[in-house]
Design brief:
843 residues; 36% strand; mainly beta; 8% helix; 4-stranded antiparallel sheet
């Protein structure tokens, strides 16, 4: 059994925190001298006596300090730091002091060790590389230019005692989070003679060998050749490999050699291995510090908006940001956080058409449920369980009568729920999993029908309508084109949708041959009732005789007089009128859909084919179209343009361009959009004019409780793997047991980087490729960016080509897919796990 170091934890409010007790600490990258051990915790360097005890913090930079390495005499520690906006090699006295910078290249320089004489630090860097690999260098502690070692590439290194040879790994590990990887990129350890660059290979059978440490005539290293990663050594005399420690539960993550011993990190604990006796012992270490990344604090979340909406009359916008639901006034008033739930993920807000409520999904119970809150955030929140098995849910859509909500889930289902009954009703299930949303439900004005699109067996989507009264769905389009974005007109007479006849080559999406093809769509209208006249009937300008015009005026005057004499006219809302009282909402006309021969009542609207990416209903007889650039290889984020089509005039006019988010209020009079970082609410009557006042969304702030968030994120990651991992057997891993196994480490985390480290280790249990962990609210130093195209470097006059990074195109909530939505579930960071890009991404 592996041993875990149990340390004392005491949390004191408004005072430095001391951690230990039953929660193991993620003390990383230990290195050892004759009297001390140095390690990384919370992104800083700490030192402690060789026998353990209370550690002392050595560095406190906002950036991360890592990879400490004691000098041979134990007086200095080389490490990798980010003090000056770049990742470079530094040295610091082992007793503490001001770090001294040794490297200055824009590339990341990572410390690896020392030369035997203690005069130079060994590091790796890509400064001289022409592709994605590193080379090995030494740099004088006294200062000076780096010297490249005579090897074509290298990742880790350890000098022989006489300095003539080098044990090194030529390649980086292919997948840091793929345990037991046995593909073509497993790592080997080679012994190089520096005089002639000849090599000797340490024997292996496609295992992952790493972290070489040369002691005497032995090269110690870590390997997974017999199960969990543990300690081995290669005898340079006998040419044989032996196991120094048996596999003992958790992997050994890193190790470092020093006088008479090797100190190593077995995930969650520090151990000392005596190279003479072959015995190991745990080192008890306590850590006391203020740990600033653990403190509760307020954080600006203006750049963390993942979903958005607009109130029914457009006076406020609603946002999901950092797992909270906030409303922002169009002009006057304050921003309201209506949830205020640190440690809970609240997602996908939607404002009810009557203006009273906001619906959203929340994982407060441990699984996502539908929550309905008063729009002011006051009062009791109604919580509705959406059934079993639990799932991830997306995009609640209110019915116009504010009594029902439609939504979709991860399992490709479309649902609606009657809030009076509280029981979800399944409408339909999509045919295929996709990295983009397909079903996109929309309600009829009378709340009795739902229109949506669904993929057929041929992977093309068709328009369907579902009747709540009959509980039946009916196909509207023929399935010979890819129909998307179906919406009802507010008058209930029409359904609009887009269709593409050139989308076929792209429907496979996972096939690389799908990507180069741009898709264009045309816009169509469905006349729902067979008694309704064609909205596109031929028009003709005809001269009308004056007598005919006078007769029409006389008929109008007579109708007006009759209305004035009507008894009901004296009392608004009287029983004789059959009309609602003044101020009451007029009930919508019942929507009539004649399904027989409905395909013969589909008309093409007079609009050019474009890269349409969404339709939004406006006022009766009006709708908005979102169109992309049509170039899938365009640089930067996608620039969407919105235009408005009027059925009366049969013309479209540009509304706003250069946007990346768009929504229309329920009454059709206001629109919410984003241009760059600016959110704006504007009237829809006229095209947007320059200088429109923006919302004060840049001031949105929420309270952050890091430890509560980290626990939510931890549980979220396991839920995502449970629901999105491609193999229902999880490669033989018991998900529930793995979740319990790693949960104790949560309380001992000191930073967001520590959480990423925990994620990487636990997800490695799945043993799958394309599992990546990165990002999150990690303190950053101000980066130094290169501006010149070419720069001469060092005495060899090599050149470096400095180019801007490629920008990744970002999907907005209106076009994001279910898998993309799942990747964003964590409050911070990104975890992309398993086949099919399932995982999470966040702040």
């Amino acid at each position: 059994m592996y041993r875990i170091l149990w340390l004392t934890i005491a949390m004191l409010l408004m005072a430095p925190a001391c951690f230990g007790g039953p929660s193991p600490l993620l003390l990383q990258r230990p290195t050892i001298s004759k009297t001390q051990i140095a390690f990384v915790y919370g992104g800083d360097l700490w030192v402690v006596g060789r026998n353990g005890g209370e550690a002392t913090r050595l560095t406190t930079s906002a950036g991360i300090e890592t990879n400490p390495c004691f000098s041979p005499d134990g007086t200095l520690i080389a490490f990798t730091g980010q003090y000056d906006g770049n990742t470079d090699v530094y040295v610091i006295p082992a007793t503490g002091g001001v770090p001294k910078r040794l490297t200055y290249h824009p590339a990341a320089d990572v410390s690896l060790g020392w030369t035997p004489d203690g005069k130079d630090v060994v590091f790796r860097s890509s400064m001289h590389s022409y592709s994605r690999f590193n080379r090995l260098f030494t740099v004088p502690v006294a200062g000076g230019l780096p010297t490249e070692l005579p090897l074509p590439m290298g990742e880790e290194a350890s000098f022989s005692p006489d300095g003539s040879r080098l044990a090194y790994t030529p390649l980086a590990t292919a997948f840091d989070i793929w345990k037991h990887y046995r593909g073509g990129r497993t790592t080997a350890i080679w012994l190089a003679r520096l005089s002639d660059s000849s090599i000797e290979k340490v024997p292996r059978e496609n295992s992952n060998d790493l972290n070489p440490m040369w002691i005497g005539n032995r090269v110690y290293f870590l390997s997974d050749r017999n199960g969990a990663v543990t300690l081995y050594y290669y005898d340079t005399t006998s040419k044989r490999v032996s196991q120094a420690l048996p596999p003992a539960g958790l992997d050994i993550k890193s190790a470092s050699a020093g006088p008479g011993a090797i100190v190593y990190e077995q995930f969650g604990s520090i151990h000392l291995f005596d190279v003479n006796s072959g015995k190991e012992q745990p080192i008890n270490i306590t850590v006391a510090g203020d740990l600033p990344e653990v403190r509760r604090h307020f954080e600006n979340v203006a750049t963390q908006v993942h979903a958005y909406g607009i109130s029914p009359t457009g006076v406020r916008a609603v946002f999901e940001a950092h797992g909270e639901i906030l409303t922002v006034p169009g002009e006057k008033g304050d921003i309201r956080n209506i949830t205020n739930t640190p440690g809970v993920a609240d997602r996908d807000p939607a404002w009810s058409p009557d203006g009273k409520s906001i619906a959203y999904f929340s994982d407060e119970s441990g699984e996502y449920a539908l929550h309905i809150s008063d729009q002011t955030g006051s009062g009791e929140v109604r919580k509705i369980n959406l059934g079993s098995p639990a799932s991830f849910y997306y995009s609640p859509i209110w019915s116009p009568d504010s009594k029902k909500i439609a939504y979709t889930d991860k399992r490709l289902n479309l649902w609606y729920i009657d809030l009076d009954k509280g029981k979800p009703i399944k409408i339909d299930t999509n045919t295929y999993e996709n990295p983009f949303r397909v079903m996109d439900p929309d309600w009829s004005p009378d709340s009795r029908w739902i229109v949506y699109t669904k993929q057929l067996r041929n992977r093309l989507a068709a328009v369907f309508v579902y009747s709540l009264e009959s509980g039946k769905a009916s196909q509207v389009t023929d399935g010979l084109s890819d129909a998307r974005y179906a919406i009802f007109d507010k008058n209930g007479k029409y359904v609009y949708f887009t269709a593409s006849t050139d989308a076929g080559p792209t429907t496979g999406w996972l096939d690389m041959s799908s990507f180069p093809h741009s898709v264009t769509r045309s816009v169509y209208v469905v006349v729902l009732s067979k008694d309704e006249a064609s909205p596109l009937a031929p028009e003709s300008d005809e001269e009308k005789p004056a007598a005919d015009q006078k007769d029409k005026k006389d008929q109008k005057d007579e109708k007006d007089k009759a209305a004035e004499k009507s008894p009901s006219a004296e009392k608004p809302g009287g029983a004789a009128s059959g009309k609602p009282a003044v101020g009451a909402a007029k009930p919508p006309e019942p929507v009539k859909i004649d399904l027989e021969n409905i395909g013969q009542r589909i008309l093409a609207l007079p609009l050019p084919a474009k890269d349409y990416q969404g339709l939004h209903a406006g006022k009766a007889g009006e709708f908005f179209m979102l169109a992309g650039p049509g170039n899938i290889f365009a640089d930067g984020p996608p620039q969407i343009s919105a235009s408005k089509f009027d059925m009366k005039t049969r013309k479209a006019e540009d509304f706003v361009a250069g946007i990346n988010a768009f929504a229309v209020s329920f009454n059709g009079e206001k629109a919410l959009y984003r241009q760059g970082p600016r959110w704006t609410i504007a009237p829809t009557a006229q095209p947007i004019k320059p200088g429109q006042a923006a919302l004060k969304a840049e001031t949105m702030e929420v309270e952050v409780d890091p430890r509560a968030e980290w626990r939510q994120m931890y549980n979220e990651v396991w839920r995502i793997e449970r629901d999105f991992f491609y193999d229902p057997g999880y490669h033989g891993l018991n998900i529930a047991e793995a979740q319990k196994k790693y949960e104790p480490y949560l309380e001992g985390l000191a930073s967001r980087a520590d959480l990423n480290y925990l994620f990487a280790e636990m997800l490695g249990e799945l043993s799958v490729g394309h599992t990546f962990v990165a990002g999150g609210s990690i303190p950053q130093t101000r980066p130094i960016r290169g501006r010149v195209a070419r720069r001469r470097l060092h005495s060899r006059e090599r050149t470096l080509q400095v180019r801007p990074r490629l920008q990744r195109r970002k999907l907005e909530p209106s076009t994001a897919c279910a898998a993309d939505r799942a990747r964003r579930q964590c409050c911070g960071g990104r975890v992309s796990a398993g086949s099919g890009w399932q995982g999470v991404a966040g702040n």
